[in-house]
Amino acid sequence: MTPAIVVLTMLLGAALGAQSPGSNLLRNPGFEAGGQAPEAWGLGMEGRGAGSARWESEGPHGGGRCVRVELAERGDYWMADQVLPARSASEKSLYRLTGWYRADKPNVAHPTVYSLDANGAFLGAFEFALPQANEWTLFDTLFRPKAGVDHFRLQLRVQGEPGVVWYDDVGLSEVGDAEGFAAQQRALAEQLQGQAAALSGWWCALVPTEAFAEFRLRGADQVTVAMALAGMDELPRGAFAGVEAVYQTLEGEQTFRWPFEPSQGLVRRTLDLREPGMKGWSGSVTLRLAARGVGPGARALVAIEPTPEVRRALVEGRLGTDYLSPAGEALPWGPQFLGDTAAQIAALTAENTTRHLAQTLGAKSGRAGIVALDGLTRRRPDEWREDVTSGRLEPTSTIELLCAGGEAESFQCLFAASSPNAGKLIAEMTPLRCKGNPPIPAEACKVRLVEYVPFAGKAWPDPLLEAQPFEPSKLGPPVFWVTVSVPEQQPTGLYTGELRMRAESGDRATAEVQVRVPGFALSKETHLNSSFWLFRGHIRHYFELQDEVPPEVYGEYIDLATSHRLSPIDVLEGPCGPLVTVYREADGSLSYDWARWDAYAKRAMDGGASTLHVAWTHWMGWFFSDRAPVTAIDRATGEAVKIAPPHNSEEHLRYLGSYLTAAAQHTRELGFKGFLYVQPYDEPQPDGYERVATTLAGLGQYAPGIPRLMDAVYPPALPQNLRSNIDLWCPLSPGIEGNEFEQEHAAGDIIWWYVCCGPRGQYANFFTNQSVLENRMLFTQTWQHHVTGVLYWGLNYWLDWGKPPVAPRFPNAPWRGVTDNEGAGYCGDGYFIYPGPAADQPLSSIRLETLRDGVEDYEYLYALNELARQKDVPEEVTRLLAVPPEVAATLTDFTRDPVVFRKYREAVAEWIERLAAGRP
């Protein structure tokens, strides 16, 4: 055997020859035809970031031409783009996307297929990132389009990070009926499952091409594996099916391969893992059982014998795909464990992790080992294990927090019982006391247990469970997440209390908690505007409610958002109706019943919401027209009538403007003193600019004084009739750094920003698989860039509307990390609230707690700035308010070090305290 570093090349050329796909739907797929540009393709960019898209003849894969796309700075994407003809796609069909690419960096090559309806509206995307490829390399994947698809738009992108990608010889073809393909895959699966019967007690998985089952072992000398292939008679030239063993050594990774042949049937092989000649092998080896290049219709059975040695050595087991998003694993032909393999692996991984942690932390009968940390980090189970067993994290039983009055701060405590079967857990806080002051009551300290979300073969901490006694997670070690909410009028001082933890087994531990309350408080008023969309329809859909969500149930979600200093924006989408009932009076005018709106608005106001949207949805520009008729009740007859004049007609704009004006006036009469706005459309494209400009101009006439928000638009790229009618700009966060909003700032326009499924890479965003500081830093950057509002598209987007809830539901089963746009694999995109055991019991998350902390970071800077405006202040204060470069130099160059951020925050707090007390 020859040691090798395996780089994924996906040698599928022979496989392509062996398949008979349908005709290519793309025009000019090899980029050969054209004059000044490749025929049928557009070359250009979307979003932000310097770069280029070129048609060139240097080094193509085939023929004489290819395309080269480059992103020269972090941003969105440059691409080659083609829109396919109308009625060329069907939601019932399965499609195959193939092509050749080269890329100078991993994950910058990003093919994307949009599903579009008959009007060209976006329905969803299938997209994936590709690894670095120094030579021409084939990608080959299957996907099913979104429901309602009429045609596709293919984008061959370079995305996110600076990099260069070449594309050539691309194919998009219909494979056949999706259900038929799924039936074929089920037949192959049944064939392989029959062979798995001979492997009684083994851990077995079915994997398609470009997928794998992976087992990480520590300290195992020998392992027996097995494999069988179905759907092919022989391996195509260049394909590989077998085992890769990746060893961790002092000199890096070393990889060995053991191939299998399909003609041999079910083959068992015992592997000696004690490879000679390796220096500094740590005893850790990852076995990857995979099939590559065998064609999209083939499958493999892979298995490993769980001997006592293997069971004790297992520290991680997962399924994955080589280049598709992990969400692709959920497809019917994706990789899957058989029988109770997944449950066994999860239980063993958790058990072995607990065992390693307990041993390292010195746990023994009656006494658990603990590690207490603040809330500036969160760790996956493997990170806890590696950090503790390596000594990077030492046993700690004391935690110190800085928390002003009216603020909340969190900490976490790992609890490692002496036995993996310690049973249910209890944890509670004592009051926090400071001599001479009233205590911070125990009720102000919320104790929850961290749950984990499976994604990309890892378990990511995020949901926070509330029901005690806690059932330990099957995915990772017990970690208590404790949030201390200091009352606004709490006197300054150092308060001390205890977190007391115990297990059914009798193991106990205590962590000392110290909270320093400085000499200032944050008010309940939040000065940062925010717009976080809350979906009533998802609550109804997920919990299968027969009627509209009751106000008392909806109120729990509103309260959860506002208690984290976020403004929940009601969204009319899915199975729900408007919160306002419309009536048509005898003279033809409209009037409104505000009862349900009042229940929502008052609940949000009472919770401290800083912002309300006076419309029903972020597509309000369609309503009161023939594009989105509004049903009104005739006051005289009680009959339902449609309000549906032509879209953007004067009558439509008058109706729409009249409603918005009435809604704004009524909300002010309720006592709302915050910010009101309207968003008529979401992320408009250039072909819709004229329509959007007409609507915005009409709102300026018929609903004056209500700021009109437009997201994803940038002043220099807009026609003047649109630019002049926007007074609330909301670009994607990277769009701010170009300083192209100076004219709008000078004119008094309002500047917000937003994030969603992008930006990615090194930008701050809210994904589950980012660090705490990558979630939190956006709010410090919001202050730094003089932005006054943050918009985000979903607090609780739990399911794609086309999918029924699964059983058992979370929290009785693991949560799926991706709930929409599955091909993209944006973990946590669209939600921070998790569904609890009942509709009226929503659950918070580490990310939701982190967003509140981020808003409070903004409030610290706001408070310091207010004090600094009143007097001359030292240069140090000015430096802190500008946010020093060691904290955030650019939108991508910011600290991920909790120590650096903690020191910065403490410095801001110190100067607030000094200036508030009149000390220089």
Tell the overall outline: globular
Beta percentage is: 25-35%
Order of strands side by side in the largest beta sheet? 31-30-41-40-39-38
Q: Helix fraction?
A: 10-25%
Average of pLDDT: 90
Rg for CA atoms: 29 Å
Q: How is the main sheet built?
A: 6 strands, parallel
Individual helix count: 16
CA-to-CA gap between the ends? 72 Å
Structural class of the secondary structure composition?
alpha+beta
Count of DSSP strands: 41
List the uncertain runs.
Answer: 1-21, 325-330
Topology (SSEs and partners):
Elements: H1 13-18, E1 42-46, E2 51-56, E3 66-71, E4 77-83, E5 93-103, E6 109-116, E7 122-127, E8 133-143, E9 151-159, E10 163-177, H2 178-196, E11 203-208, E12 211-218, E13 222-230, E14 240-249, E15 252-259, E16 267-272, E17 284-292, E18 299-304, H3 308-313, E19 314-321, E20 336-337, H4 341-361, E21 369-374, H5 381-389, E22 398-402, E23 408-416, E24 425-429, E25 445-455, E26 458-465, E27 479-485, E28 493-503, E29 508-517, E30 529-535, H6 536-543, H7 551-562, E31 568-571, E32 581-584, E33 590-593, H8 595-607, E34 611-613, E35 630-634, E36 640-643, H9 650-669, E37 675-677, H10 689-702, E38 709-711, H11 720-723, E39 728-730, H12 742-746, E40 750-754, H13 772-784, E41 789-792, H14 846-868, H15 875-882, H16 898-916
Parallel strand pairs: 22-29, 30-31, 30-41, 32-35, 34-37, 38-39, 39-40, 40-41
Antiparallel strand pairs: 1-4, 2-3, 3-10, 4-9, 5-8, 5-10, 6-7, 6-9, 11-18, 11-20, 12-17, 12-19, 13-16, 13-18, 14-15, 14-17, 21-23, 23-27, 24-28, 25-26, 25-27, 28-29, 32-33, 35-36
Helix pairs in contact: 4-5, 7-8, 9-10, 13-14, 14-15, 14-16
